[in-house]
Design goal:
17% strand, homodimer, Aspartate Aminotransferase, domain 2, 360 residues, alpha/beta, globular
Chain lengths: 360, 360
């Protein structure tokens, strides 16, 4: 498949310079068609009957398999969720942390991770890494680890700057449980969960699935309490709620997922061409260098696929102005920055439109 | 609107004797159209820009308003969730119960409630009410209350027998926090939250919305810890996760809800004709008496809109056989019963087809 053929699958790209996959990825025509087809199928089947339900179980299994393949895992270690926030809540609540415990994170995390950390009751220690040289991140984060640290919890790719955090090295160096927020990594850069304990995945961002869908990788399901059980948690249950958990990570699944969303995500997961990571990295660098000619660009090259920059005016106003010109980006609250998300589908014309809009 | 006009809005009813709203309600053509229209709108708008996002906030607010109206509440006390299970988890975890505490429930609850109760660590005391005279339920449940009871948690309508539990009387008599699982009540029978503390609502069953969607009523948001926070929980947040909660129950919302599902549910909530409760009650009684002529019917008349019965063979096989005849019902695991769900849209022909299938 050529680049132009692959890009042409995403209708929104014909109208917009769509640079917002860090929020919601573009939906491909085959993904939209798979969802519409599944809607028709469900209506035809009356959403009932054993075959219909067995078909959903098989669909869930296929999606888990494809997600596992993406991150170097086995399907047994993957649960379907609605979001990375869900995954973070499941893990942090499941670890049963509380006062007296400490969690180490960075100063550039999304509320979807920070909120669960805060409500755990543990003390949250914040390493200063954002807008510092990425090469210092390992040392800065490790320096916050102490005898009370029970969890390291951080993004693989920072949502504000696109910096790639040294998650594997942190695991090796500390040996502590590591929760990785993968919202801005899976689908954007190569990911292998390796020795990591918990890894959250967003379906609707770089993997171009429908919203809201996601997944959670759990290295050892037995090590984590089921804090937010749903029907998927159990294989049998007593009248007082005592239950036999299912034997894999799907016990942590956060609820029923609409069949159309499973069908759409399954299709979306098959679409990226082989060369997609290389292309995404290249167009991200192109975006950085073009923007650097007209304003300050945040962070460093060769990180994730997010490019934050400091427009001359208010970033929210800049984003609104660009939207009127058909360029979709977002502001990063509290930073003075706007952020462009570069996918493998992004082309040079998109970047030209971005630069023209920022300059205007 | 006449009965036939109202029924004709639901395409699945033209093909199936669809008696499974206790699992998933029928979807109306206007609901399906609203979702397809919203999909087109989102694709046209590129799922970005301030106006798009503000529109979603307004849509969420309208849905919360309509749900509140259904249950005699104000919108400020309603959060959007994905399911009743979500709501039960949010409430039980938020109460921070543990060993030494007791929860009282019934012996006929769904895993979506029982699982959260169990993982709380509290002792779960189970009142024997299923298949006993409903008039005894109040006394039987109240008899399980003791000095360590911190929560009563039970269904308004039991999913196995359709019995209506005396939730208001329990609140009045015990004064204890009461969590009501409204999966089989809201949309099926008149509901007013009155003095109840927590009430979960399913959008995809009797309210005929898309799956998975729901809501949670919280009488006093300040009384409940936010145990599973999502982006909706906060109005501002610090780098260590400390946050200012929003001032209403939407702080308990369990995550992003697909715009198409909000649009679909909004439409679905407007569809039931004024006379729908009366009609649902009447057709339920008709179903009971027709089935009673050929097999044992469980429970009592004048309860909810679920009719469980004991077919001569295995209930799962009965359900499968009926599905082949275009009659959609389900088995109730572990009981020897099958269950027919009667909605206001159900007609006498549906019941004839059910009875013919069960007799065959």
């Amino acid at each position: 498949m050529t680049y132009d053929e692959a890009r042409a699958l995403y209708p929104v790209l014909a109208r917009f310079a769509y640079l917002n996959a860090g929020t919601l990825g573009p939906l491909a025509q085959p993904t939209l068609a798979a969802m519409a087809e599944r809607d028709r199928f469900d209506q035809d089947q009356g959403r009932g009957g054993r075959a219909w339900f067995d078909g959903i179980l098989a669909l869930r299994a296929r999606v888990r398999g494809k997600v596992a393949e993406l991150i170097g895992a086995t399907p047994e270690n993957v649960a379907i969720t609605s979001s990375t926030t869900d995954g973070c809540n499941v893990v942090v609540a499941g670890l049963g942390l509380g006062p007296g415990d400490e969690i180490v994170t960075t100063n550039s995390e999304h509320p979807g991770l920070l909120l669960p950390l805060h409500v755990s009751g543990a003390r949250v220690r914040v390493a200063d890494v954002a807008n510092r040289p990425t090469a210092e991140a390992l040392e800065r984060i490790a320096a916050c680890v102490g005898p009370k640290t029970r969890l390291l919890a951080l993004s693989h790719v920072l949502w504000t700057t696109g910096q790639v955090m040294p998650v594997d090295e942190l695991k090796r160096e500390t040996g502590l449980p590591l929760l990785v927020d993968g919202a801005q990594s899976v689908g954007a850069i190569p990911v292998d969960v390796g020795e990591l304990d918990f890894y959250t995945i967003s379906g609707q961002k770089w993997l171009c699935g429908p919203e809201p869908i996601g997944a959670l990788y759990v290295r050892d399901p037995e090590s984590l309490r089921i804090a937010f059980p749903t029907y998927w948690a159990q294989t049998s249950i007593e009248p007082d709620g005592t239950f036999v958990p299912r034997d894999d990570a799907e016990r942590f699944a956060t609820g029923w997922t609409a069949t159309r969303m499973l069908a759409g995500w399954e299709t979306a997961l098959d679409l990226p061409p082989e060369w997609h990571f290389e292309r995404a990295a290249a167009i991200t660098e192109h975006c950085r260098s073009e923007l650097a000619a007209i304003c300050e660009v945040i962070g460093e090259p060769s990180q994730g696929t997010l490019v934050s920059f400091a427009p001359s005016g208010d970033p929210a106003e800049t984003a609104a102005r660009l939207y009127e010109r058909g360029v979709v980006i977002r502001a990063v609250p509290g930073t003075g920055w706007a952020r462009a998300s570069c996918g493998w589908w992004t082309n040079e014309d998109d970047i030209d439109r971005l630069v023209a809009g920022v300059s205007a």
